[in-house]
UniProtKB/TrEMBL annotation:
Protein name: SPFH domain-containing protein
Ranges where the Band domain occurs: 30-195
Highest taxon of source: Bacteria
Transmembrane segments: none
Origin species: Streptomyces mutomycini
InterPro entries, per database record: Band_7, Band_7/SPFH_dom_sf
């Protein structure tokens, strides 16, 4: 909106560079261009202000697909007024000479024109498109169709309007339909998650089974090693017993041989001793064969006395002594007084 000030019955207008001002006085065009600044009298001036900058028009409307499903189309159209003279001639861009406010609503008329045109082409293309296709490829299709339709609309060039860009933000179905459409994908995602969980559990079970098998194999190997150890210990024990038995046999044989040799030697020695004793006895007997019996008795008594215990004193009666002497062939002793 232009900036208008009052000075002594005159008005001064100062516009922005993006606003095209057309000033008519008494039916003649006196000022025409963007960013103007001039003095005028309000009673004789007719002012028009046409914006020439790019403007964004957001729109949202409902449509129905080929399978009779309601969808909402959200789009944005960028446009600008390329011919302010044509626009001012076709639409009411006049402003109040004292306040600078538009007397009508020209931008709303342009928005209605663009929205209805875009909606018409969107409805036309969506009415022949199923819901699933519209949700997948509908954005690009609707955008191309709306851009083509706006470019071919004859009222826009006649009004001095150029469409700069068309953007379709989204095509959304109703909330219930959208939830229903999301259900298979969610179920599939949940199934994938469950399958991942099952696969992870299966891998865990497989790993536990592998660990158990490894432990069992280790135990079996350990038992086999223990069996080998027991067998080896038994073999060693048997070998040790056999070696010990063989050693004992050798030792016993050697001891027996030594005992036999010793017995033989002792027997030989006994025979030698016996023979020597027999020879000595025979010689003794031969030596005493010619001796009288008394002498032999004395020798026997002497030998007997040698083998008797020690006797400190012996008392003999006269009878015994007389008999003994008589045997020995000696005179009897005289009796003592």
């Amino acid at each position: 909106m232009a900036d208008i000030t009052r000075r002594f019955g005159w008005r001064h207008l100062r516009s922005a560079p993006t606003a095209h001002i057309r000033h008519h006085r008494r039916g003649r065009l006196t000022h025409d261009g963007p960013g103007l600044s001039f003095w005028y009298r309000s009673l004789s001036a007719a002012l028009s202000e046409v914006p020439v900058d790019d403007r964004e028009l957001a729109m949202a409307f409902h449509a129905r697909t080929a399978d009779f499903q309601d969808v909402t189309v959200q789009a944005t159209v960028t446009y600008r007024i390329s011919d302010p003279a044509e626009a001012a001639a076709r639409l009411d861009f006049s402003v109040h000479p004292d306040t600078g406010v538009w007397r009508a609503a020209p931008l709303e008329q342009i928005a209605t024109l663009l929205t209805e045109t875009a909606q018409q082409h969107s409805l036309d293309v969506l009415a022949r498109t199923p819901l699933a296709t519209a949700l997948v490829d509908g954005v690009a299709t609707v955008r191309e169709r709306v851009a083509t339709g706006l470019a071919a609309e004859p009222r826009l060039p006649a009004t001095g309007i150029d469409v700069v860009a068309v953007r379709v933000v989204a095509i959304r179905p109703e909330a219930e339909v959208e939830r229903a459409l999301r259900t298979p994908a969610r179920e599939q995602i949940q199934q994938e998650a469950d399958r991942s969980v099952y696969e992870r559990r299966a891998v865990a079970v497989e790993r536990e089974r592998t660990i158990a098998e490894n432990e069992l194999a280790s135990k079996i190997e350990l038992a086999r090693r223990e069996e080998q150890l027991v067998d080896q210990r038994g073999t060693n024990a048997r070998r040790e017993a056999e070696e010990k038995s063989a050693a004992d046999g050798v030792r016993a044989a050697a001891e027996a041989a030594r005992t036999v040799r010793l017995a033989r030697a002792e027997a030989e020695a006994a025979r030698e001793v016996g023979a020597a004793r027999a020879e000595a006895q025979a010689a003794w007997l031969r030596a005493h064969a010619d001796v009288d019996p008394g002498t032999l008795h004395a020798l026997a008594a002497t030998r007997l006395a040698e083998n008797l215990p020690r006797i400190d004193s012996l008392t003999l009666s006269p009878d015994v002594l007389t008999g003994l002497l008589a045997r020995l062939g000696r005179p009897e002793p005289e009796e003592r007084a």
